[in-house]
Queue: 2 jobs
Job 1
Amino acid sequence: MHLALKLLLALVPKDKAIHILLAGILLPVFLICVLFSGPVVVHERVPMVSQEQAMLYFNAAKRVSNSTSSPCDKGVIVNWQQVIAIDAVLLNQDFSNANEDRAYQLARRFVEKIGECTHCQGTGEKRTCSTYPVYRLKTIDEVMDELGFSQEEKERVMQFLAADLSFLLNISGVPPGWVPQTGPWAWPVPGNYSISSGFGPRIDPFTGDVGKHDGIDIPDVIGTRAVAARKGVVVHCSWSSGYGNLVELDHGDGIHTLYGHLSAYSVIKGQVVEMGQEIGRIGSSGKSTGPHLHFEVRVNGVPVNPLTFYGGS
């Protein structure tokens, strides 16, 4: 800031009075630009929507998804995050106009009827058959093309989807500004203490049902370093259903840590890693709604809240 001010002053006559006057005018303007540059970035990367408004889109996507299933076809699942990202652009971030019907109609754009299937019950004279529609899930690019989005608008949508937006629905379990207590344990994503989904009961971002979350989710951009929480041995380093690309470490005394949804591995099975050593890169592989690290701690095979090891609840 000091250097920028000096450069500005260098462009004007070297009169002390003028310098003072310009400093009084330019410095406040410069400070305002600096102060508001951060919120602008947040505004561009995260939809400015309340939890209540986000639930409108979540429920709409679930309602549409449920309507596509039948006794003879499992149907499709509409990604609520894609619905909300598109409407963030349509509404220019003004979600005061969001409502249940609007969210539902937008979610319906993601499904298309492609045929029918028949389901029969009973035998003989009591046999009855019913016909049900079969749907396919459109890609987000198809929906954006149908809406006539420009390339710039498409890029804004994808910018919103670069982060896992599930934090809009779930309570992380930590107060604002929480910082982990490190010592015997290193935080798995250095410098990033945000948690989009905590340990325990939560709304499943795919099904909408209440389930149990065996770890915590730390959202970050793809390619961010994930590190070992403690010294240990790599006992798993490959694809695992649900977890996607998974690294599991054995720390002894029955304690294991798991690092899921990775985009790349930095270790191999059997390798000994030190606390804080990189084990992989954050991604969105497996059952994931956006880039984040799923961090899990198991004691004698039983998942426990990872935050208990960092001074959290």
Job 2
Amino acid sequence: MIASKEGGMEIEEIADKNPEAIIQVIVEPAVGLQSFQAREIAFDLGLNIKQVQRATQLIMNAYRAFRDCDAMMLEINPLVVTNDDRVVALDAKMSFDDNALFRNNNVADMHDPSQEDPREAKAQEHNLNYIGLDGEIGCIVNGAGLAMATMDMIKHAGGNPANFLDVGGGASPERIATALKLVLSDENVKAILVNIFAGINRCDWVAKGVVQACETVDIKVPLVVRLAGTNVDEGKKILAESGLDLITADTLAEAAQKAVEACGASPELEAASA
């Protein structure tokens, strides 16, 4: 649990320039937040005795809400002190663990799909992990770690990823097609990079999925495909014999560079690449 008298709008900047202003208490999960820890936070915030008593109760209640609702984060900002020494959570926000919503119906019932990115909502329907960004290179990758590495490599090559998209372990034709549609729904996308490392899958299966997906989805932007792992030679042969206008690459660095070049290399991209 962290707190600061400096306010929470630029907490990262405060932590960098004035780390002493960040109050931190380590909570042992098996024991939970203790009242003495809550009092320690209240005193460090510079509150008087009367305010400390009320702040301690508020902090303990916040921890219980965090724990009982399976929250990922609970932030009170601002926490205000009134002229009559009341301590009030003037505003707060919470985020919750999606995997625990089944046992928190009161939280799940408050879900409002209209507040979500429609692409992310569509991805959830197909069990795809999708997060929209503001770049121009769409990414279709299997595995969250590889997806992050792919995004980093695109940045290193001078481009900007348009999304995070993890198709998971089963990169079937249907999933690849759905992923392509999601990526293409972003008007900013000028090229697509498919980066698959076949461990659980096989490259020949993935290649067939890419080919079938391309036959069902109208792709009007360059498509860069990089395969690695089990049966990679068979997968590359399928792509080569497909007759599709694909750009293939052997390494992630090569694939990222080709994706950036396929975007038409705007002046900004050329400067970044240089």
